[in-house]
Amino acid sequence: MLPYRDLLVCGISTQIHQEVNGLDELISQNDIDFIESGLIQQSLIRVGYLAIIPHKISAGTIGKIASKRLQKIKNQLAEFILID
After folding, report:
1. What's the total number of domains in the chain?
2. Over the stretch 1-33, which tens digit does the pLDDT of each residue have?
3. Cα of 67 vs its chain's centroid, Å
4. Which of 5, 13, 37, 82 is deepest in the core (most CB within 10 A)?
5. Are residues 6 and 53 in contact, defined by beta-carbon separation less than 8 angstroms?
6. Domain boundaries, position 33
7. For the chain, what percent of residues have pLDDT higher than 90?
């Protein structure tokens, strides 16, 4: 277990025109995990817009995404970091 349990979070935006292809993840009303996400409209998960949040100030979750989508986001972030 990690000693601090800090959270790495991505920004979420409804500004679809700001999408960075190959990095950001679009989630729309037609996606199977949209309702569980807690979002109210089509949004971007901004993989390039990251922040560290201390676990102790986290108020909890408002939704969740499918594990397949989360794995895709992790892969996109890893590929982005490893680009020369």
Report:
1. 1
2. 567 788 889 999 999 999 999 899 999 999 999
3. 12
4. 37
5. yes
6. 7-82
7. 69
Residue 9 in tokens? 């979070």
* CB within 8 Å of 22: residues ≥ 6 apart: 76, 79, 80
- Rounded distance, CA 36 to CA 79, Å? 27
Per-residue pLDDT, 47? 93
The CA-based angle 24-81-19, given to 5 degrees, is 15
**2 in a structural domain:** no
In the numeric block, the tokens 């109210």 are attached to 40
- The letter for the amino acid at 53 is I
The full length of the chain comes to 84
